[in-house]
Amino acid sequence: MHNSHARRTSTYIYASIATAITVGIIAFPEDSFRAALDGLAVWWEIVFPALLPFFVASEILMGLGVVHMLGVLLEPLMRPMFNVPGVGAYALAMGLASGYPMGAKITAQLRSKRLCSRIEAERLVSITNTADPLFMVGAVAVGMLGNAKLGVVIVLAHYSASILLGFVMRFYGRRGTETSGARPSRKTGLLSHAVNELVSARESDGRSIGHLLGDAVHESVKTLLLVGGFIMVFSVVTRILALAGVTHLIATPLGVALRRFGVEPSILDALVKGFFEITIGCQEASMASASIATQLIAISAIIGWSGLSVCAQVASLVHEAGIRLHAYLSARVIHAVLSAVACALLLRLQPFSVPAAELQASATRLVYQPSAIGTLIGSTKLLAGALAVTSVCALLVSLPASLRVVRFFYSSKK
Questions:
Q1: What is the pLDDT of residues 131-180, one digit of tens each?
Q2: What is the structure's pLDDT at 183?
Q3: Where exactly are the structural domains of the chain?
Q4: Which of 151, 244, 272, 352 is deepest in the core (most CB within 10 A)?
Q5: Segments in the chain below pLDDT 70
Q6: Cα gap 60→106, rounded to integer Å
Q7: Does residue 163 contact residue 379 with C-beta atoms inside 8 Å?
Q8: Among residues 108, 167, 131, which one has the least CA distance to residue 317?
C-alpha cells in the first residue's frame, strides 16, 4: 500500500515537472531554441571529439580481453586502496583522463560482464566519474577565467578530492559479502594468470576484428548521441528556470543559509545553475562579481557535483547493469564539499597563489571558441597517456609477484 502511494506521488511529480518544462518552452520559444543551440555547440565542439576516442577504445579493449588482463595485474593495488577489483584501475584511469560520463560507461560494462559485483560497481561509479583536464584547464581556466595558472588549482583540487572520495567509498557496503576478482595460485603466478584471462576473454567474445571495430563505433556514437540529448535538454531547462525567476527564487533562501559560512551572495545564482548543468554553472561563476578565490571555490564545488545533467547521463548508462544511484548521488555531494575545501586550502599555499596583477588582467574574460579537431587531438593524447600509465602501473604491481614465483620454483627444484 505504501509503495503504491509512493509510486503514484512520484508519477504526479514527474508529470508536473514535464508539463512545466513544456509550458516554459512554449512561453520562451526563442530563448529555448538558442539554449538548445548552445548545448548542441558544447556537445559537438567539446564533448563529442573529447569522448569518442575513449568510448571506441574502451569497447575494443574490452572485446580483446585487455581489460580482463589488466584487472588481474592491478588487483593487488586496487583492492587494498579502494576495495574494488583490479579492473577498476582501468575505469579510474579512463575516467580521470576523459571526463563525464566515461567512468560510468566503463563501470556499467564491467558489471554487465560480471567483472565486479554490484556493490563494487557502485563504489567504482562514485569515484571514476570525474571531469577531464581538457575541460577544467581549457574551457574553465583559459576560456572562462582567462588565466591558465588557475587550471592547476582546479585540477589538483578536483583529483585530490576524487582520491579522498575513493578512500571514503571503500567502506561503502562492507557488510555485504559480494566480492569479485579471483586470486591466482602461487604456482600459476600473476602474469600467467593475466595472460590466461586475456586469452579466455578473447575466445569468449569471439567477434572478428572488423565486427568488433564496427560494434565499437556504433555503440560509441549511440551513447554520445544520448549524452548530447541530455546536454541540450538541461541547457534549455536551465535557461527557462532563469527566465522564469526560479533560479533567483532558489538562490534567495540559499543565500540566507550560506551567509553564516561567509559565502558571497553574488555567487549564489552560479551555484543554483551549476546544480543543474556544470558548464553553465562554471560560466556564471566566472562572470560573478565575487573575488577570484570565491569563484574558484564555487567552480570546484560545481565540477565536483557535476550537475543534474551528468547525473541523468549516468542514470541512463548504468540502469541496465542494475547499479543503484543512491551511493553515486551521495558521493557527488561529498566530492563537491571536498573539492571546495581542497581548493580553499590550495589557494592558501604560496606556489598556487596568483599575483593580483595577473588576476586583474584576467578580469577581461576570453571567449572560449574550441576547435573540434583540436579537442579530438588533445583527447587522443590523453587516451594514450591513460593507457600508458595504466600499463606501467600493471607492470610495476605484477613484477614483485612474478619474482616471488620465480624464487618459489627455484627453491622447489632444490
A1: 988 888 888 888 888 888 888 899 999 999 999 999 999 888 876 555 66
A2: 53
A3: 27-413
A4: 272
A5: 1-3, 175-189, 350-372, 397-414
A6: 12
A7: no
A8: 108
Q: Does the model's pTM come out above 0.90? A: no
pLDDT at site 1: 55
Q: d(Cα 330, Cα 351) in Å, to the nearest integer?
A: 32
Cβ neighbours of residue 249 closer than 8 Å, sequence gap 6 or more: none
pLDDT of the residue at 303: 95
Could you tell me the CA-to-CA distances from 178 to 85, 114, 121 in Å, in that order?
11, 12, 11
Residue 80 pLDDT = 87
* Residue the block writes with cell 593495488: 77
